[in-house]
């Protein structure tokens, strides 16, 4: 019989996933992204009696989990929800706009990256969702840490002194977008509030939920500087998740306040190792009704 982690006192899972071993599918360099979690997402979904008909990711962000699940057919269909209008513009262009992904890939390939041209785009007022999508990808790639929130700044020195060109890989970005187009029929994108979506779509048949909210519930509150929309009702989110009939997996800061919210709802929590953007080893919490697959 598989081991069931206790709520508290369970040793951390010390193995840090090598992100270089995970297919990089997203055009975003996303702060708080979950590339490191992808092997555990696969293990979770494959541990279910049957693969879900529908995976719902209400805080899609950079979308690596949704893209992996759709590309690897770990669910029949995937719905991504994101409130941030800039981030949403990228997914709307690639997933919902016929020809939009091809247009965006061409714009990236054709763009001559110089500081004056970058500033010209970033200071522009986009006239369409497509133009906003291009500005967003550019901003994400030339800003420190990929941060899009107010107060973020351009990369200064970057890798090997390359400055704003450090994270601008036009061929790679265009290729990732093109690959998404090959399976976009298995994706739906919704621009909107995660909690409102979950309220309006309770207990979808054969659905599984991956929930990765901004980390603003505990003492660290890292999400408050990383995201434009960082204030959410975490208590309400926990109540919604605990009420799902179907499987769900949540990720959170390893924080006593989060553990208490999980414990009070009879949920299992376990700390897993990861490395942050500065390559420091840390732990984050996985929370679910059942973690026996770990």
Share of β-strand residues: 5-15%
Strand order of the largest sheet: 3-2-1-4-5-7-6
Secondary-structure element series? HEHEHHHHHEHEHHEHEE
State the secondary-structure class: alpha/beta
pLDDT under 50 segments (min length 5)?
A: 1-12
Shape: globular
Task: Report the count of strand segments.
Answer: 7
- Largest sheet: number of strands, sense, barrel closure: 7 strands, mixed
Q: What is the average per-residue confidence, as pLDDT, rounded to a whole number?
A: 87
The helix content is 25-40%
Helix-strand layout with pairing:
Layout: H1 38-47, E1 54-57, H2 64-71, E2 77-82, H3 85-96, H4 100-110, H5 115-122, H6 129-142, H7 170-181, E3 187-191, H8 194-200, E4 207-211, H9 223-226, H10 234-242, E5 248-253, H11 256-264, E6 268-275, E7 281-288
Parallel strand pairs: 1-2, 1-4, 2-3, 4-5
Antiparallel strand pairs: 5-7, 6-7
Helix pairs in contact: 3-4, 3-6, 4-6, 4-7
Task: Report on the architecture of this protein.
β6 and β7 (281-288) form a beta hairpin. α3 packs across α4 (100-110), α4 packs across α6 (129-142) and α4 packs antiparallel against α7 (170-181). The longest helix has 14 residues, at 129-142. The protein has helices at residues 38-47, 64-71, 85-96, 100-110, 115-122, 129-142, 170-181, 194-200, 223-226, 234-242, 256-264, and strands at 54-57, 77-82, 187-191, 207-211, 248-253, 268-275, 281-288. It has 294 residues and is α/β, with parallel strands linked by helices. The two termini are 12 Å apart. Mean pLDDT is 87; it is low at 1-12. It contains eleven helices and seven strands. 41% of the residues are buried. It has a seven-stranded mixed sheet with strand order 3-2-1-4-5-7-6. The chain is globular, with a radius of gyration of 19 Å.
């Amino acid at each position: 019989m598989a081991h069931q982690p206790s709520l508290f006192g369970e040793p951390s899972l010390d193995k840090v996933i090598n992100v270089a071993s995970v297919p990089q599918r997203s055009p975003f360099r996303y702060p708080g992204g979950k590339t490191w979690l992808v092997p555990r997402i696969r293990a979770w979904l494959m541990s279910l009696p049957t693969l879900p008909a529908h995976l719902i990711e209400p805080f899609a962000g950079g979308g690596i989990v949704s893209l992996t699940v759709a590309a690897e057919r770990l669910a029949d269909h995937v719905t991504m929800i994101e409130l941030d209008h800039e981030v949403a513009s990228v997914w709307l262009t690639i997933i919902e706009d016929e020809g939009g992904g091809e247009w965006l890939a061409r714009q990236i390939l054709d763009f001559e990256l110089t500081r004056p041209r970058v500033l010209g785009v970033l200071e522009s007022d986009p006239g369409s969702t497509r133009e906003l999508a291009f500005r967003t990808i550019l901003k994400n790639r030339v800003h420190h840490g990929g941060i899009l929130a107010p107060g973020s700044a351009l990369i200064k020195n970057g890798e090997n002194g390359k400055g704003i060109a450090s994270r601008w890989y036009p061929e790679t970005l265009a290729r990732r977008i093109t690959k998404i187009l090959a399976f976009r029929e298995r994706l739906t994108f919704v621009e909107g509030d995660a909690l409102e979506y979950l309220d309006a779509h309770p207990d979808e048949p054969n659905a599984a939920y991956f929930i990765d909210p901004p980390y603003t519930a505990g003492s660290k509150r890292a999400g408050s500087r990383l995201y434009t929309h960082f204030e959410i009702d975490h208590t309400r989110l926990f109540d919604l998740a605990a009420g799902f009939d179907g499987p769900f997996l949540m990720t959170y800061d390893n924080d006593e306040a989060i553990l208490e919210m999980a414990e009070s709802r009879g949920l299992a929590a376990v700390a897993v190792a990861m490395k942050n953007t500065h390559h420091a080893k840390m732990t984050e919490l996985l929370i679910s009704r059942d973690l026996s697959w770990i």
